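look at this record:
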Amino acid sequence: MRDWISLFADSAVVAIDAMAVLIIAVGTIEMFVTCVRSVFNPSRTGRDLRDGYLRYARWLMAGLTFQLANDIIISARAPTWDDIGRLAAIAFIRTFLNFFLERDIVEAGKFPIDEEPPRVDRGAPSAS
C-alpha cells in the first residue's frame, strides 16, 4: 500500500511541478507581450500596462499556489528540514505577494484610469 501511495505522490509532484512551470511561463510570456506592445504603442492612460501587471501578478500567485501544493506533498511524505524550510519560504513569499496584490487591486479600483485628467490650459483667456 505504501508503495502505491509513494508512486502516486511522486507522479503528482512531477505533474503539479509541470503545471506550476506552465502557469508561470504563460503569464510571463503574456506580460512580455504586454510590455513590448506598450513600448511601441503606449496607451494615453497607461491602463494596458497596469492591467497587464495585475494579470501577471495573478499568474504568479497561481503558479506559487501550485508550487506550495507540490511542496506540501513532498514534505508530507518524508519531511527533511530542507523540505520544511522550502515550504515555509514559498508560503511566506505567496502570502507576501498576495498581500501586495490585493492592495494593488484595491488601489487600482480607487483611481479610474479610463478617464483623462482635466486639462488646465494656462495660456487661454478665461471665459468669464
